[in-house]
Specification:
Elements: E1 16-22, E2 30-40, E3 43-51, E4 58-62, H1 65-83, H2 95-99, H3 104-110, E5 158-159, E6 173-174, E7 181-182, H4 199-213, E8 214-218, E9 224-228, E10 237-241, E11 244-247, H5 248-260, E12 267-269, E13 274-277, E14 289-290, E15 296-303, E16 306-313, E17 324-325
Parallel strand pairs: 7-12, 14-17
Antiparallel strand pairs: 1-2, 2-3, 3-4, 5-6, 8-9, 10-16, 11-13, 12-13, 15-16
Protein name: [histone H3]-lysine(4) N-methyltransferase
Keywords: Chromatin regulator, Metal-binding, Methyltransferase, Nucleus, Phosphoprotein, Repeat, S-adenosyl-L-methionine, Transcription, Transcription regulation, Transferase, Zinc, Zinc-finger
Catalytic activity: L-lysyl(4)-[histone H3] + S-adenosyl-L-methionine = N(6)-methyl-L-lysyl(4)-[histone H3] + S-adenosyl-L-homocysteine + H(+)
C-alpha cells in the first residue's frame, strides 16, 4: 500500500476519469484525455489516453501523475507560446488535480474504500464515518454480493421477482452468469407522485442529486453499505448501478479471473447480451446489501437508447437508514446455502 498513496492522494487501482483539456497538436482546440490507474509489478502505473478527432489515439504512461501529465503539458505550453495564445505554466499544475483525484466528490468516495486505514502517510480531508472504524467482520470483500463466489457449485440463478411494486408488474429475473444479479429489460417502477414525469427526466434529476442522496459507511448487515443521506420519498430514483458494460461471454471469463485474484465479484446483468461489471470501475451502488425486507428495488430504465440499472426506493426511507434490496438468488440445496445477516423480522435466514 505504501506505493499507492502519498500525503495528498490515494491511487486506487482501476480508477478511470476523463478530462477535456487543450490539444497537444492545435493551439485553439481541445481534446479528450482518458486517465487510468493500473498496477504493474506491485507499483502504480499512471496512464493517459489522448483521444483527438483526426488523429490516432496516443497512450502515455508514467510512474506518477505528474510524470505522465508533464508529457502532455510541455507540448501544449510550447505550441501555445509559439502561436501567441495565452501561456500555460505546467510547473503550477499538479498531476493529481488533472487526474481528478483531488475533486471533493472523488476524494469522499476514495476515503470510504475498504482498506484505506493502511494508507498511513495520507492526510484525510473529510475523515471516516464512525461506523467505518468497526472491523470488517463477515467478509473481506466488503459486500454480501460477492459471497456466492465462495460456493463450490456454480449454477445460473433463475427466480421470479416478488419485489414490491410501485406501479405495474415486474418481470422475471434471469441470471446467466453465476453471482450476477440481473433483470429483464421490461422491468419498471414509477411512483404515483412522479407518474407525470418521464423516466428520462427522473434519471437526469437523479444523476444531478445522487451525491446528496447517499453516503458509504460500515454496514450493520455485512461489510460496507450505502446509507440515505436525507429522507427519500417512495418510488424515487436514488442511484445508478454503474460500471463497465461487457458481453456475457466476457463476464464469465472476468468472474473466473477475479476469483483467481481473490477479489469480490460485483456484476449486474442488463439483458441477455450485456452485463455491468462494477468490480473495478463501479460506483457506490455496488455496496448496497441484501435484505429480506428491502426498502429499494432495481429497475431497467432506457435513456437515450441505452439501458441503465437504477436503484429506486419502494417505500419512504428515513435519513441514516441503510439502503438494501432483495438479491433474489436462485434456491440452492443445503450444501450451498448462503447465510443472510439482514436481521429483518421476516428474514429467510438464507439468501438462496
Amino acid at each position: 500500500m505504501k506505493a499507492f498513496h502519498n500525503q495528498a492522494s490515494i491511487f486506487p487501482v482501476g480508477y478511470h476519469a476523463n478530462r477535456i483539456y487543450w490539444s497537444m497538436r492545435h493551439s485553439n482546440r481541445r481534446c479528450k484525455y482518458m486517465c487510468y490507474i493500473e498496477e504493474k509489478e506491485a507499483e502504480p502505473l499512471f496512464k493517459v489516453k489522448v483521444v483527438e478527432k483526426g488523429h490516432d489515439d496516443l497512450i502515455l504512461t508514467g510512474p506518477t501523475p505528474k510524470a505522465v501529465w508533464d508529457q502532455i503539458l510541455e507540448p501544449i505550453s510550447q505550441i501555445r507560446s509559439s502561436s501567441g495564445t495565452l501561456k500555460l505554466f505546467p510547473v503550477y499544475l499538479k498531476g493529481e488535480d488533472l487526474f481528478g483525484l483531488t475533486t471533493s466528490a472523488v476524494t469522499r468516495i476514495i476515503e470510504s474504500l475498504p482498506g484505506v486505514e493502511a494508507c498511513d502517510r495520507y492526510t484525510f480531508r473529510y475523515g471516516r464515518n464512525p461506523l467505518m472504524e468497526w472491523p470488517l467482520a463477515f467478509n473481506p470483500s466488503g459486500s454480501a454480493r460477492s459471497e456466492p463466489k465462495a460456493c463450490q457449485a456454480k449454477r445460473p440463478y433463475l427466480l421470479t421477482s416478488i419485489a414490491p411494486r410501485c406501479q405495474g408488474s415486474v418481470g422475471s429475473i434471469v441470471g446467466l452468469v453465476p453471482g450476477v444479479i440481473s433483470l429483464s429489460p421490461g422491468e419498471s417502477v414509477a411512483g404515483a407522485h412522479q407518474g407525470r414525469h418521464s423516466k428520462s427526466s427522473q434519471y437526469r434529476r437523479m444523476k444531478a442529486e445522487w451525491k446528496s442522496n447517499v453516503y458509504l459507511a460500515r454496514s450493520r448487515i455485512q461489510g460496507l453499505g450505502l446509507y440515505a443521506a436525507r429522507d427519500i420519498e417512495k418510488c424515487t430514483m436514488v442511484i445508478e448501478y454503474i460500471g463497465t458494460i461487457i458481453r456475457s461471454e466476457v463476464a464469465n471469463r472476468k468472474e473466473r479471473l477475479y476469483e483467481s485474484q481473490n477479489r469480490g465479484v460485483y456484476m449486474f446483468r442488463i439483458d441477455n447480451d450485456f452485463v455491468i461489471d462494477a468490480t473495478i470501475t463501479g460506483g457506490p451502488a455496488r455496496y448496497i446489501n441484501h435484505s429480506c425486507a428491502p426498502n429499494c428495488i432495481t429497475e431497467v430504465v432506457t435513456v437515450e437508447k441505452e439501458n441503465k440499472i437504477i436503484i429506486s426506493s419502494c417505500r419512504r426511507i428515513q435519513r441514516g437508514e441503510e439502503l438494501c434490496y432483495d438479491y433474489k438468488f436462485d434456491l440452492e440445496d443445503d450444501q450451498h446455502k448462503i447465510p443472510c445477516h439482514c436481521g429483518a423480522v421476516n428474514c429467510r435466514k438464507w439468501m438462496n
